[in-house]
Amino acid sequence: CITVCDPFQGLPYLHTGKGDLDRDRELMAYLLAASRATGEHDPLIVVTETTKSSWKDVPDMSDILGSGRLGYSGDVVIAMRQVPLKAGTLLHALVTAEIGCDPVNHRLVQLRIVKGRRCTMRGNVWFVMDTLRSSMMEIAAQSEMTQAHSQCENEDRMQIAKDKAGDKGAKGKKYASKK
């Protein structure tokens, strides 16, 4: 039996603690005990909310909302996010080559394994989601996608730094001309 709790924060549970963190700890302990009650160690999938910052950077365990016990209780923790596809980038070209057409109705999805026990390999798994058909397809070129994504993130960071430097320079000229 596989139990899926989605969303974890929305599950009704009367707790004995004082706040939300106590509730999260108690509910996680209850769910783990219930999944192991049969002696089979049935899989438990807990879908939880994350912070907004996890969508900007590489998600990790600190992005899970609620008690730290949520992430530490799991055998595997996987973060999922949509990665923007900008035309003209290597990511866009790889996705276009993978699906064989312009990815107008497709979304690039990154699953990042941020924690794993028992020899689970950490890393990224890339999917393309077809929004018209509500289907997902794993990308064959996993390592190329990870490299392209890193390259795009570095280019974005460099552009942001240039924009900030340009804004500071423009403000300095503005004040200098007033004197």
Task: Walk me through what this model shows.
This protein has 179 residues and is an alpha+beta fold. Helix content is 39%, strand content 21%. It has four helices and six strands; from the N terminus they run βαβαβαβββα. Strands 3-4-5-6 form a four-stranded antiparallel beta sheet, with helices on one face. The relative contact order is 0.10. The model has no long low-confidence stretch (mean pLDDT 76).
Largest pleated sheet: 4 strands, antiparallel
Catalogue the unreliable spans: none
Class derived from helix and strand content: alpha+beta
The fraction of residues in strands falls at: 15-25%
Shape: globular
Write the layout of secondary structure elements.
Layout: E1 3-5, H1 20-36, E2 44-46, H2 69-73, E3 76-83, H3 90-99, E4 106-116, E5 123-130, E6 135-138, H4 142-178
Parallel strand pairs: 1-2
Antiparallel strand pairs: 3-4, 4-5, 5-6
What labels would you give this structure?
alpha+beta; two-stranded parallel ribbon; 39% helix
Please outline what is shown here.
The protein is of the alpha+beta class. It has four helices and six strands; from the N terminus they run E-H-E-H-E-H-E-E-E-H. The strands form two sheets. A four-stranded antiparallel beta sheet has the order 3-4-5-6, covered by helices on one side. It has a two-stranded parallel ribbon with strand order 1-2.
